[in-house]
UniProtKB/TrEMBL annotation:
This is Nardilysin. It comes from Gulo gulo (Wolverine). It is an enzyme of class 3 (hydrolase). Its main location: other. Cleaves peptide substrates on the N-terminus of arginine residues in dibasic pairs. Is a critical activator of BACE1- and ADAM17-mediated pro-neuregulin ectodomain shedding, involved in the positive regulation of axonal maturation and myelination. Required for proper functioning of 2-oxoglutarate dehydrogenase (OGDH). It holds the Pfam family Peptidase_M16_C. Its cofactor is Zn(2+). One of its GO terms (biological process) is proteolysis. It is found in: Cell projection, Dendrite; Mitochondrion. GO terms for molecular function: metal ion binding; metalloendopeptidase activity. Residues 255-536 form the Peptidase M16 middle/third domain. The keyword DNA repair does not apply. Its EC number is 3.4.24.61.
Length: 853
């Protein structure tokens, strides 16, 4: 533990803290912790920053280095640790490795810390109150939380899982179904996240978080009352064995037929399980329900009463009404008693709501797990089994994983979407309302481990369905039925459009997403930016315009699908046939490319520097991008190899040594078929000017050029071999194979054996190929684009010399970008972009390109 290394790590921790500050989830958690009784561990500041780890200790003559070593000696002990190793090597080999690697870990023999005496951390007068909070994002949300006794010892019953399954249900009779019909809520999540903060040896959380509409915010007490009515109904009925056994059956099915997960994730999960469960339950303790004990469930359920609840109401409407500020994240909030009329009502034996009831028996739970026989020749890759003017279908019967599951994916392509910013927004509204309409009827399928997702793609509607193949056709047909018979009420239209305004706004105020939007707006011709979409939405759209758009969208399409898994080719063709028959559309008049055309950047260093859109956010994002052009698969693979060489020195130079920020990474960029690479640094305006960071990135790239020139053949070959091994890695589950194949379908490239071609290319590369390619793209004729999204802090000054922005939650106007001039640091070496549309209108368009050769 070198002192200098600790100082650098403090900077990294501080950067992580700065990145966490604009997160409403983190702010809410920190505020909740502050309600714990004084001196309790739950009230600690558990992020750490430069103030607590460096400046304050220095003022108080505390040696951080000595304290860290003391902590390490106390807790870095073998008898506190659990170890899981997964490998294809023999057990004898693994035992030998474990002995060699881990036997030197010290064992101090000290007893494990016990916090069992610190229960009831939130048994305080401050807990059972209403807290109004000003969020960072545009959102209305109500969170109702109870602090219960520790529940970990009841893992065989999982009472909180039982309760959350019912509270979070979205079918008929549920809380959310009722609130959606009232147009008061959009989403609800209930339960315990099983994080160290939410479940530990001192207490367990049970929380219900509801995303409210504007109208729901006005009726938040009625929303809370609906929750309390549902819980009272559950308490009155008591635990139901039918419900428990249904949950148990679903979890058993999922466990028995689960696909292999990523090995790193798996060993991490097992390591944690070994800390929590006895030996016989290491593999199953976190997933299965073992015993039905109604008294254990009832004990937890009966504590979920209004008198013990904490209410947190998040809304921008609270701004100006909150006179308190949380110490570490600066969250503005107020504390008040629950309104007297409601508090008095909740003390009484209030009436139940007849619209709230338990869910019916689930018809989507699979019972047939037989593997189907092949009805066509086995193939290594998907084959096209249907090809008509209206659509085509790719199919592959699973012959590797042998599980009773299937994946169905469809892309409904239409040129209508990208014709205007208003059309892109109408498409987003359409997909959001369709998802809303499906929420209740499809929820039973969702809880039976049949998953679906509707995605508003840039060129079409993407439908993804997966799960046990037995009942999967029922879910797919339900989705297509609702698509064919799409409708919306004025109330739902208003609710969804208001929420979409918040969604767009929340995307724009994040520096990393704004930086991506700006970069792609420059590079991709005819792309509509998030600001274009936000402006079109704010200008106003009507329900009539939506219904007209949807009618036109459904009238003319090209449908492309992929079906993989435990499904026959005949069954697969039925999926496409169902889409075509139900929607009854005309084919497209001409083939439509599913990518944008990309502009050719001129030679030189172009800089687009814009102001971030959240005045309370110090985070800046700097991306330096080099455009290569329309290249071959071989060159793409060479670029991958280059970035792999770049990753470690990039991290070492920009994060470890220069301490510029927490997120530092190089990336291969495939922008609609046009190649390039970039280096991105997330930094803070409280520490660095973005142009200093840009200069440091260039400094790194210069040092990297020297580094690869001096690379030994052995080191070069080691990296080549490592990348080949990565590409040769077998898929751990069917979903990985499907994702790769679907990417070929959705981009219309169809090179399903791409990995094999990339491996062949890697075997042909020499060190000089790598060096020459990098030099060619960094030379005098290089096409370089820097995108800076500048946060608010003392190193980014306004023209009057004052720091830009205040430490508040307020946001700038997001209807347009604010372009910033270059400082003297870059003004002579860069060409400024102060109007993206004007800049790109003068550039050549590169032809459509696919990386298939």
């Amino acid at each position: 533990m070198i002192r200098d290394a600790i100082d650098r790590e403090v900077e990294a921790v501080d950067s992580e803290y700065q990145l966490a500050r604009p997160s409403d989830a983190n702010r809410k958690e920190m505020l909740f912790g502050s309600l714990a009784r004084p001196g309790h561990p739950m009230g600690k500041f558990f992020w750490g920053n430069a103030e607590t780890l460096k400046h304050e200790p220095k003022r108080n003559n505390i040696d951080t280095h000595a304290r860290l070593r003391e902590f390490w000696m106390r807790y870095y002990s073998a008898h506190y640790m659990t170890l899981v190793v997964q490998s294809k090597e023999t057990l004898d080999t693994l035992e030998k490795w474990v002995t060699e690697i881990f036997s030197q870990i010290p064992n101090n023999g000290l007893p494990k810390p016990n916090f069992g005496h610190l229960t009831d951390p939130f048994d305080t007068p401050a807990f059972n109150k209403l807290y109004r909070v000003v969020p960072i994002r545009k959102i209305h949300a109500l969170t109702i939380t109870w602090a219960l006794p520790p529940q970990q010892q009841h893992y065989r019953v999982k009472p909180l899982h039982y309760i959350s399954w019912l509270v979070g249900h979205e079918g008929k009779g549920s809380i959310l179904s009722y609130l959606r019909k009232k147009c008061w809520a959009l989403a609800l999540f209930g339960g315990n996240g099983e994080t160290g903060f939410e479940q530990n040896s001192t207490y367990s959380v049970f929380s219900i978080s509801i995303t409210l509409t504007d109208e729901g915010y006005e009726h938040f007490y009625e929303v809370a009352h609906t929750v309390f009515q549902y819980l009272k109904m559950l308490q009155k009925l008591g635990p139901e064995k039918r419900i428990f056994e249904e949950i148990q059956k679903i979890e058993d099915n999922e466990f028995h037929y689960q696909e292999q997960t990523d090995p790193v994730e798996y060993v991490e999960n097992m390591c944690e399980n070994m800390q929590l469960y006895p030996l016989q339950d290491f593999l199953t303790g976190d997933q299965l329900l073992f015993e039905y004990k109604p008294e254990v469930i009832a004990e937890a359920l009966n504590q979920l009463v209004p008198q013990k609840a904490n209410l947190v109401l998040l809304s921008g409407a609270n701004e100006g009404k909150c006179d308190l500020k949380e110490k570490w994240f600066g969250t503005q909030y107020s504390m008040e008693d629950v309104e007297n009329s409601w508090a008095e009502l909740w003390k009484t034996n209030f009436e139940l709501n007849p619209d709230l009831h338990l869910p019916a028996e689930n018809k989507y739970i699979a019972t047939d797990f037989m593997l189907k026989a092949f009805d066509c020749p086995e193939t290594e890759y998907p084959v096209k089994i249907v090809n008509t003017p209206q659509g085509c279908l790719w199919y592959k019967k699973d012959n590797k994983f042998k599980i009773p599951k299937a994946y169905i994916r469809f892309h409904l392509i239409s040129p209508l979407i990208q014709k205007s910013a208003a059309n892109v927004v109408l498409f987003d509204i359409f997909v959001n309302i369709l998802t809303h309409n499906l929420a209740e009827p499809a929820y039973e399928a969702d809880v039976a481990q049949l998953e679906y997702k509707l995605v508003a793609g840039e060129h079409g509607l993407i439908i993804r369905v997966k799960g046990f193949n037995h009942k999967l056709p029922l879910l797919f047909q339900l989705i297509i039925d609702y698509l064919a018979e799409f409708s919306s009420t004025p109330a739902v239209f208003t609710m969804i459009t208001e929420q979409l305004k918040k969604t767009y706004f929340n995307i724009l105020i994040k520096p990393e997403t704004l930086a991506k939007d700006v970069r792609l707006l420059i590079l991709e011709y005819a792309r509509w930016s998030m600001i274009d979409k936000y402006r079109a939405l704010m200008d106003g759209l009507s329900l009539e315009s939506l219904l007209s758009f949807v009618k036109e969208f459904k009238s003319q399409l090209f449908v492309e699908g992929l079906v993989q898994g435990n499904v026959t080719s005949t069954e697969s063709m039925d999926f496409l046939k169902y889409v075509v028959d139900k929607l009854n559309f005309m084919p497209l008049e001409q083939e439509m490319p599913v990518q944008f055309q990309v502009v050719e950047l001129p030679s030189g260093h172009h800089l687009c520097k814009v102001r971030a859109l959240n005045k309370g956010d110090a985070n800046s994002e700097v991306t330096v991008y080099y455009q290569s052009g329309a290249r071959s698969l071989k060159e793409y693979t060479l670029m991958e190899l280059l970035v792999m060489h770049m990753e470690e020195p990039c991290f070492d130079f920009l994060r470890t040594k220069q301490t510029l920020g927490y997120h530092v990474y190089p990336t291969c960029r495939n922008t609609s078929g046009i190649l390039g690479f970039s280096v991105t640094v997330g930094t803070q305006a409280t520490k660095y000017n973005s142009e200093v960071v840009d200069k440091k990135i260039e400094e790194f790239l210069s040092s990297f050029e020297e580094k690869i020139e001096n690379l030994t053949e052995e080191a070069f070959n080691t990296q080549v071999t490592a990348l080949i091994k990565l590409k040769e890695c077998e898929d751990t589950h069917l979903g990985e194979e499907v994702d790769r194949n679907w990417n070929e379908v959705v981009t219309q490239q169809y090179l399903f054996d791409r990995l094999a071609h990339e491996i062949e290319a890697l075997k042909s590369f020499s060190k000089s190929d790598l060096v020459n390619w990098f030099k060619a793209h960094r030379g005098p004729g290089s096409k370089m684009l820097s995108v800076h999204v500048v946060g608010f802090g003392k190193y980014e000054l306004e023209e009057d010399g004052s720091p830009s922005g205040e430490d508040s939650n307020s946001s700038c106007e997001v209807m347009q970008l604010t372009y910033l001039p270059s400082s003297p640091l870059l003004v002579d070496s860069t060409i400024p972009i102060t109007d993206i549309r004007a800049f790109t209108s003068t550039l050549n368009l590169l032809p459509y390109h696919k990386i298939v050769k």
